[in-house]
Amino acid sequence: MSRLSWWQRIIFGLTFLLPLACNLTTVDPTAIPFPTATATIFKPATTTPKASSTAPATATSKPAQPPKPTATPVFNLVQAFPAPVCSVVPSVTAANIRSGAGTNFPVIGTIFVGNWVMASRLTNSGWYQIVALGTVVNGGWISNTVMTLQQPCVCTPDSCTQSGIIPPTAAPSALPRVGFVGLQPSGAAPCIVTGGSADLPIFSVPEGDPPIIATLIPNGGLSAFDFRAGRWAVNFTVGSQQLVGWVNGNRVTVAGDCDKLRVPPVCSVQAPIGGMAEVYAEPKRDARVITTMNEYLPLPFIQKNADGWFNVDVGASGNGWVPPEEGMLVGPC
């Protein structure tokens, strides 16, 4: 076979390709179209609320809850006027008594206007320590911003003492007379102090020259429970009130188990029984005498020097020295 010429090849190629091209562009009207996806949106069925014959419930406010109870003081100190010198009285309706000298300490009691309580000292920060022996607030603290000190009186960090001349006042009411003649020690009252043949003053506090709050009758006895600064603490009753006072130890006789009450709470120096001791500014006999002490007034012990002199704490006066032959250690030394 002879080879085809170039124009014959073109004609032959067109003859082959034309039918093929027609099949690609011609649509068969009888062909079944492919199904197309149709998006259908489904709506949730809604329900129509039925009419109700009852009215819808309405919100009602809850009744107000009562306030939670607040802590109340454990004790209400009541000592009605007249107020003695060196006592403090509220300058407000009611004053808080706290367990320590500061508002960060808890309230342990209150004292209302019209009442008084003895002050034993005043801190540099302005807090009175009070004396209310026989009560739970004894030794508590009250701010001087809400209390007035009864004059004439001077308070320091160590003590509150009467000062100056007492101005003339109305005649004081009669002091209560207390005591039991023939009182003997017992299980409930193991230590008994008995006065002599004359009236004996009962003081409000153990130190200094405080007000007299009652009188121990001649040969009258009372139960004692403490001994401090040369005075015995005694219980007594006036009306329905249970009170505590202090009697001078050198004016009474004691019976029963009283020795344990004499022991000071800290190691102290005491004068010989029945004797006196001088306290010097320096550990030598020619030094200035600061004060004197007896068996009822031991002073806290600080140290002992090489010569045997006792260094003691004398409060606001600083410290002093007791000769070795005039003092002895007592208490937990």
Describe the structure in brief.
This protein has 333 residues and is mainly β. The chain has helices at 6-25, 259-262, and strands at 76-77, 87-90, 94-98, 107-112, 117-122, 127-131, 141-143, 147-149, 153-155, 160-162, 177-178, 180-181, 191-194, 200-203, 212-216, 220-228, 231-238, 241-248, 253-256, 268-270, 276-280, 289-294, 299-304, 310-313, 319-322, 328-330.
Topology of helices and strands:
Elements lengths: L5 H20 L50 E2 L9 E4 L3 E5 L8 E6 L4 E6 L4 E5 L9 E3 L3 E3 L3 E3 L4 E3 L14 E2 L1 E2 L9 E4 L5 E4 L8 E5 L3 E9 L2 E8 L2 E8 L4 E4 L2 H4 L5 E3 L5 E5 L8 E6 L4 E6 L5 E4 L5 E4 L5 E3 L3
Can you give a write-up of this model?
The protein has helices at 6-25, 259-262, and strands at residues 76-77, 87-90, 94-98, 107-112, 117-122, 127-131, 141-143, 147-149, 153-155, 160-162, 177-178, 180-181, 191-194, 200-203, 212-216, 220-228, 231-238, 241-248, 253-256, 268-270, 276-280, 289-294, 299-304, 310-313, 319-322, 328-330. The longest helix has 20 residues, at 6-25. It starts with 5 loop residues before the first helix and ends with a strand. The model is unreliable at 24-32, 34-42 and 165-171 (pLDDT under 50). The chain is elongated. The protein contains 2 helices and 26 strands. By secondary structure, it is mostly beta strands. It folds into 3 domains: 76-162, Roll (SH3 type barrels); 177-262, SH3 type barrels; 268-330, Roll (SH3 type barrels), CATH 2.30.30.40. Strands 12, 13, 16, 17, 18 and 19 form a 6-stranded antiparallel beta sheet that branches. The protein has a 5-stranded antiparallel beta sheet with strand order 7-6-5-2-8, with no helix packed on it.
